[in-house]
Design brief:
Organism: Dictyobacter aurantiacus
Pfam families: adh_short (PF00106)
Helix content: 40-55%
Order of helices and strands: EHEHEHEHHEHEHHHEH
Number of domains: 1
CATH architecture: 3-Layer(aba) Sandwich
InterPro entries: KR_dom (IPR057326), NAD(P)-bd_dom_sf (IPR036291), Sc_DH/Rdtase_CS (IPR020904), SDR_fam (IPR002347), SDR_oxidoreductase (IPR051911)
CATH topology: Rossmann fold
CATH superfamily: NAD(P)-binding Rossmann-like Domain
Protein name: Short-chain dehydrogenase/reductase
Radius of gyration: 20 Å
Number of strands: 7
Family: Belongs to the short-chain dehydrogenases/reductases (SDR) family.
Strand order of the largest sheet: 3-2-1-4-5-6-7
Oligomer: single chain
Distance between the termini: 36 Å
Length: about 300
């Protein structure tokens, strides 16, 4: 139990999957956790109540807050609610996300934009809501649930992969800027999980079935996709998304200034850490040559500098 430095944590997309597991694990570790989800009065009322019951049964400080990441007003209100109740926020876990499965051509630009609105723009809205507070405090942690798909690009998930790349790009470039105010960033990169989340069962398919049918020669590959992904796991490995939640708890528990910029939780042996290490080296070299190397370092401003 990590009772020494309990944090106030906002988790987006906490109704199911990794978000829910992380919210539970963080609360069990002694933190005050706001599990956020959409429509807690109606559509998700039962899920919201389940979280409250969990908190009571386990004796943990887990609360439910309404937050729809597709609405700036909703993000602002959720952050304000937490600040009113707690006085501060220490950590935001950006986890809201949706999956689309299908051939890229079969999706309309509007369908893909809708996915981006949740997976990438949701991060923008929540950051806009919380960053004024974190900048003023000169502290805080932005934690993102990224994806190994941004490095090893899997087939048949085109819009999803593109949205995660956009989110990763926003996370990185935001990190440059907010690091100068003492705010840390960490991108946790889960590999593929074929169990323990509702990602695949709830995935959206394209409305344009005629174009989907034009790609019928690839349907056999799509049908094998989940099995093919599972075959990447070592035989003795339990590829459980709880491992991602455990890593989130570990990162939050680390002292400020010692947290990794990226953390990999991958059972598919995709060697993503090698890609990450090379990209970091190239990025550092590029920024150093521009004279902007300090943007990659956590800088806690002194009062006279602000």
């Amino acid at each position: 139990m990590n009772h020494t430095h309990p944090s106030v944590i906002l988790v987006t997309g906490a109704a199911t999957g990794i978000g829910q597991l992380a919210a539970h694990s963080l609360a069990e570790a002694g933190h005050t956790v706001y599990a956020s989800m959409r429509d807690i009065e109606k559509r998700n009322a039962a899920r919201a109540q389940k979280e409250r019951d969990y908190a009571t049964a386990r004796g943990v400080d887990l609360r439910v807050v309404e937050l729809d990441v597709t609405s700036q007003e909703s993000a602002d209100r959720a952050v304000q609610t937490i600040l009113t109740e707690q006085g501060h926020i220490d950590v935001v876990l950006h986890n809201a996300g949706h999956l689309m499965v299908g051939y890229v051509e079969a999706f309309t630009a509007e369908e893909i934009a809708h996915l981006f609105d949740t997976n990438a723009m949701g991060v923008v809205r929540v950051n806009r809501a919380v960053l004024p507070h974190l900048r003023e405090r000169g502290a805080g942690l932005l934690l993102y649930t990224g994806s190994t798909t941004t490095v090893v690009v899997p087939p048949f998930l085109g819009p999803y992969v593109a949205s995660k790349m956009a989110m990763d790009g926003l996370a990185q470039t935001t990190a440059y800027e907010v690091s100068q105010f003492g705010i840390e960033t960490c991108i946790v990169m889960p590999g593929a999980f074929t169990q323990g989340t509702e990602h695949f069962p709830h995935a959206t398919r394209p409305a344009d079935t005629a174009t989907m049918e034009a790609y019928a020669r690839l349907d056999g590959m799509v049908a094998r996709n989940e099995e093919a992904t599972s075959s990447l796991f070592a035989p003795d490995v339990d590829a459980n998304p709880q491992a991602v939640a455990d890593e989130v708890v570990r990162i939050v528990g680390l002292p400020a200034g010692t947290r990794p910029f990226r953390s990999l939780v991958d059972f598919t042996q995709a060697h993503v850490e090698e890609g990450n290490a090379l990209l970091w080296k190239l990025q550092k070299d590029f920024l150093d040559r521009m004279g902007f190397g300090s943007l990659l370092t956590q800088t806690v401003p002194q009062p006279n500098e602000v």
